Amino acid sequence: MRDCVTSAGTLGSVYGNDFGTPQEGDQRPRESGDPAAFTQLLADDCRIEPRDDMPEAYRKTLVRQIAQHAHSEIIGMQPEANWISRAPSLRRKAILMAKVQDEAGHGLYLYAAAETLGADRADLLDQLHSGRQKYSSIFNYPTLTWADVGAIGWLVDGAAIVNQVPLCRCSYGPYARAMVRVCKEESFHQRQGFEILHTLSHGTAAQKAMAQDAVNRYWWPSLMMFGPPDDDSPNSAQSMAWGIKRFSNDALRQRFVDMTVPQAEALGLTLPDPEIVWNDERGHYDFGEVDFTELFEVIKGNGPCNAQRMAHRREAHEDGAWVREAASAYAAKQAESGVGAA
Amino acid sequence: MKDWPLWEVFVRSRRGLSHVHAGSLHAPDAEMALRNARDLYTRRQEGVSIWVVRSADIEASTPDERDSFFDPAADKIYRHPTFYDVPEGVEHL
Questions:
Q1: Cα nearest neighbour of A51 on chain B
Q2: Which residues from chain B sit within 8 angstroms of residue A98, using beta carbons?
Q3: A–B: how many Cβ contacts below 8 A?
Q4: CA distance B67 to chain A (A)
Q5: What integer best gives the mean pLDDT of chain A?
Q6: In this predicted model, what pLDDT tens digit does every residue of A58-85 receive, in sequence order?
Q7: Radius of gyration, CA atoms only, chain B
Q8: pTM
Q9: Which of these, A99, A66, A60, A63, lies nearest to A81 by C-alpha position?
């Protein structure tokens, strides 16, 4: 019988820090600085919690991955926010605002998870702003038309969901629990994108062409979101051993293709890959080779919007400084007069 | 933001249930922490009541001490009803 929660989903709630007993009934012996305890927890598919002993490399890998994930959520607000003021109806505008607000929320859940590992929030933002930490390369592509908002929801959020669902079972408790919350909210994102494209593809010829163009431009970058191929992914094996990663990049990419091809048919749109064909023997769709040189170029900073995204992010942070200062000053004043502030 | 304290957020999802830890956030004071928590953790009506507590004010047991702290309960299985033998046919016990 397991004496620990092995799936964050069964907790039914999302915890940030671990202040109390990890799980009732967990009587596993554990000693300070004992690497065997960490290994045993992983072997039993138990969650690692913030105050547990863990190898420094495990902690560092998680901080880097969670921070990069958080940065992606925050930067990911930009391509879509670009269309809030030009959404074609009040309904679409309200939906898009809710979605962009969700992305901000996802970033905040993830920064909080990174902080349970000893990272400092302001320091993580500094690292994003100075380019020392990365964010997902997909957000360096422009949103040229309203259909791009649909393509992002359908393809980009669709790929993100395939990537993120296994993270709900990640070995690090706070990360896994943040992902449970993120995944619950993400499915609305994908559906609203699909709905936008479905509406366009059943509209005028020009609207359908706009939808097809968006899919043409976002298809390959979406496949790149799963990262380099397995034989060129040096950190994957260690992350799998640590239970941070549950499936390989190529396995997740295949899952996404299998899921998406029938959806494209339902939309009446084509995917820009003539090699997509059902393979009866494998029980999967075959698809063409992804151009990973493009991925590496975008990661290096040579994508179409890298400079713009970073400049906008830094500007927003600097423009918000007076708000943060005012809030601090107000809190200090209230504390002095002994009213309100704790 | 560097000097804004960290707050732990507890949300009561429905009447009749207790507040459950939902996550954490930074805020300059309790009032802002509450408003921030509302926006961050109850965007989909996940709560009817929120508590915020400064993380620094929480005292926690440590994993290192866990054995000595919790073991005294381990050998008292007679605290559970399943410890007792009940003769066949005896009901409502």
A1: B63
A2: 43
A3: 97
A4: 7
A5: 89
A6: 999 999 999 999 999 999 999 999 999 9
A7: 21
A8: 0.88
A9: A99
